[in-house]
Write a structure and sequence with these properties.
Structural class: alpha/beta
Radius of gyration: 35 Å
Number of helices: 21
Shape: elongated
Helix content: 55-70%
Largest sheet: 6 strands, mixed
Strand order of the largest sheet: 6-9-10-3-11-12
Bound molecules: adenosine-5'-diphosphate
Number of strands: 12
């Protein structure tokens, strides 16, 4: 399992898989009609403008010596009409390609996002979130131009090259062959640069990914940063990563700066050469070269190197795009290892009997976390899970919702193995409240309605009243319509929990899983939360990773977990009488509370 920190580069593939380009063409396929139209417009306009040097040659060699003003005027008007047509074609092409580019990018982004929604927790456990974001936003954006304009321009340039060659050969075969002598030199440069250029763009994409990952991590952790006064150190890490990105980018574009001057130099040298040879041949009256032919020919030469130049730049964008595509398809291809079995059935309405039978689990190979865990929970009862940090409490509750697959053993709900039912039908009947009750940006009403979009306002308010959240919500400036920020920074942790209680209640889950927050809250809120919780628990099986004594004492059964095993199980009184681990834990909390009372 690759733990990928922000400053650890992702792996780089040596050779690229051309199939990825084939895959991306699937995204282009629905727009082939519009692309064909854009291509036709571009090809027709460039074929027509290709006639200009021929016109010049005719005017110079035929019509000026013959003083045929009428023919010259006709050719001039024809040229103007062609220019006008070319302008209109370019305008339409830009409109079509930008529309298609954005449509493709939208589709690609939507596919990657949909897949991300399905990927299991283990995928997110394993990599910085910024590295995922950069794929969905930056990499996909960078492909927009390539997938629309790039395709059209490449085909147009290739056709232009063929047109130009045809015209050049038609004009003068020997001069054309001399001009083509520059091509082997260019091929040599491309072969030299190709591998290095691809690697440079891969490194650049890695550095960009590292930088984004660090920015995302820093924004998420800004409170900790400021409270530990780490701003200066973080800025220096940022500058280091940003400097790496800048250097990688500079190294990658350096190869562009090799290509373009090379093409320019080859073009200039061959043009000069053609002038020298051409003038020599004109003065020696050799091989039928005239002034008109020479002017037209040199005009074709400059046009001949133009598409080669743009093809070289397209090749460069292609290498960048491949580096991005590798990452995008890597995400889209990431296997969803927690998914419905092919013959998965719908989970019948849950009564709430939960059984763990010899459940073993590990996050990483050869690091067992749960070791043959066995227990049975009865419908409607509340189970408190207690134990030291890192004991495996959260792991147990995560397995009930099948956020991870077990390594061996079986988890049954009402006698049905949960790996045999669809994830949707299972999770729809469960309410899960994590420790940091997540609040989404939007209104409080939206937040409570998050898991049940069809709930009416009245139902939302009723749920909030049941869990004792209504009063504090009504005290806010716009009541249920008060806007809250992502993560609920405007709310206290107790208020965030009450909102998440209401959210869970509205979903009316048969099984409730709650990771209780450990943060100390005032007694008033504690009483409120306990009251809300008691109402929430009524009539459903609940598993609570409990820290508050009040919750623990009220549970029907307490499971004391340590090192991935359930060491003790029973009611509060039974476990106290056992005088084992739970007794020690309880006594330490009890002493602590007494101490607190004494000092108050
Ligand atoms: P608890 O909830 O009791 O504090 P957890 O169930 O969260 O403990 O963790 C149990 C063990 O599993 C710990 O040793 C922890 O380091 C490890 N662990 C938890 N989550 C992961 C993860 N995503 N990847 C690898 N190890 C993990």
């Amino acid at each position: 399992m690759a733990r990928n920190k922000y400053d650890i580069d992702e792996s780089i593939e040596e050779s690229y898989d051309i199939k990825q380009l084939g895959r991306v063409l699937q995204y282009v396929k629905p727009y082939r009609g519009q692309l064909a139209l854009a291509l036709f417009l571009m090809l027709s306009s460039s074929a027509l403008t290709m006639l200009f040097p021929m016109f010049i040659s005719e005017i110079m060699d035929t019509y000026i010596p013959a003083k045929d003003i009428k023919a010259i005027v006709t050719i001039t008007i024809l040229s103007l009409v062609i220019v006008l047509y070319a302008c209109i074609c370019i305008r339409f092409k830009i409109r079509i390609t930008s529309r298609i580019g954005q449509a493709i990018v939208h589709q690609l982004r939507s596919d990657i996002f949909c897949h991300l929604q399905e990927l299991p927790f283990s995928y997110y456990d394993d990599r910085p979130h910024g590295k995922i974001q950069v794929r969905v936003v930056n990499y996909v954006n960078s492909l927009s131009d390539l997938l629309s304009n790039g395709i059209i321009n490449t085909i147009t340039d290739m056709c232009n090259l063929i047109f130009i060659l045809v015209f050049m050969f038609a004009l003068h075969i020997r001069l054309t062959l001399i001009c083509l002598c520059g091509l082997p030199v260019l091929m040599g440069v491309i072969i030299f640069v190709k591998r290095r250029q691809r690697r440079a763009w891969q490194i650049q994409s890695n550095k960009q990914s590292n930088l984004t990952a660090y920015i995302a991590e820093s924004i998420n952790g800004i409170r900790v940063t400021q409270s530990f006064v780490r701003e200066r150190e973080n800025t220096s890490i940022f500058n280091h990563l940003s400097g790496n990105y800048r250097s990688a980018w500079m190294r990658a574009v350096k190869y562009n700066f090799i290509m373009w001057p090379c093409i320019d130099s080859i073009s200039t040298v061959t043009t000069a050469f053609i002038y020298v040879i051409g003038i020599g041949w004109i003065s020696g009256e050799l091989y039928g070269v005239t002034i008109g032919i020479l002017i037209a020919f040199t005009s074709y030469i400059s046009r001949f190197w133009e598409p080669i130049n743009t093809l070289a730049s397209f090749y460069n964008s292609l290498l960048t795009a491949i580096a991005y595509l590798e990452r995008i398809f890597e995400t889209i291809d990431e296997p969803v290892n927690v998914k419905d079995a092919p013959d998965a059935i719908e989970m019948p309405p849950i009564q709430g009997n939960v059984t763990f039978r010899d459940v073993c689990f590990s996050y990483e190979d050869n690091v067992p976390i749960l070791n043959k865990v066995n227990f049975t929970a009865n419908a409607g009862d509340t189970y408190a899970i207690v134990g030291p940090t890192g004991a495996g409490k959260s792991t147990i509750v995560n397995l009930i919702s099948r956020f991870y697959n077990v390594d061996s053993g079986e988890i049954q709900i009402d006698g049905t193995d949960i790996s045999k039912v669809t994830l949707k039908s299972l999770r729809k009947q469960m309410g899960i409240m994590m420790q940091d009750s997540f609040i989404f940006s939007g209104t409080i009403m939206d937040n409570i309605r998050y898991g049940n979009l069809t709930a009416t306002d009245e139902e939302v308010i009723a749920a909030a009243k049941t869990v004792c959240a209504h009063d504090f919500i009504m005290e806010m400036e716009n009541g249920y319509q008060t806007q809250v920020n992502e993560r609920g920074s405007r709310l206290s942790s107790g208020q965030r929990q009450l909102i998440s209680f209401a959210r869970a209640l509205l979903e009316n889950p048969a099984i409730l899983i709650l990771d209780e927050a450990t943060s100390s809250i005032d007694t008033e809120t504690e009483i409120l939360l306990q009251k809300g919780l008691n109402r929430l628990l009524q009539g459903r099986t609940s598993f609570i990773i409990a820290h508050r004594l009040s919750t623990i004492k009220n549970a029907n059964c307490i499971m004391y977990v340590d090192k991935g095993n359930i060491l003790e199980k029973g009611t509060h009184e039974e476990l106290l009488a056992l005088k084992g681990e739970y007794y020690k834990l309880f006594m330490s909390q009890y002493d602590f509370l007494l101490e607190k009372k004494g000092t108050a």
